[in-house]
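## retry 2 of 3
previous attempt timed out at serialization; input unchanged, resubmitting
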Amino acid sequence: MIEVVKSDGSSIPFDRAKLARSMRAAGAGESTSEEVADAIERAGDMMPTQQMGRLVMHGLDARDHGSAERHDATRWLVARTAIEVTRGVARLPPGILMSRRLDQGEDFQLMNAGRVRTVHAELNERTITGKNEVRLHSDDMRSLDLEDGDRIVVVRQSQGRASGEWRTGGPSITHRAAGAKARALEARWEQEREGDK
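## retry succeeded, writing output
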């Protein structure tokens, strides 16, 4: 079992199902998600989150470039139904607008299990909202097959392709146990991707 080492030095057990779900939410197929998750699970005993992110990116990119870009540029929020929100609008707290570098009225995409909906960003000043919540009209929730409280992927668009601007970086952590197998897997997937060009 892999231990995932977070940027603050703490570690958590590897959650294979969560990783596969995140890849499927970005549009990767079931077999691609399972194949990449399987390979990462076999890559070592301890792995920093940054290295796991690179492996996911290389693994997806070698198989499905579009899913790799979407996965790289995504962040999760909790979806909440709001009666006062207009269809096609997503109300976000100020911190989310800032961290996602979104302006009011700017279009961005919401994704859930391959379903995509483009909405307009709107500042949520009137209601108390959790710091990671997005408020949506019930029609938008239904179109994305969401229930109140479900997690949803938020993707910002930039010049026609998913933007990776939101990636957050912590201090680089290296662990010998994660090294050789993970680097070999990353190199193999990089070669596969280069061979497809």
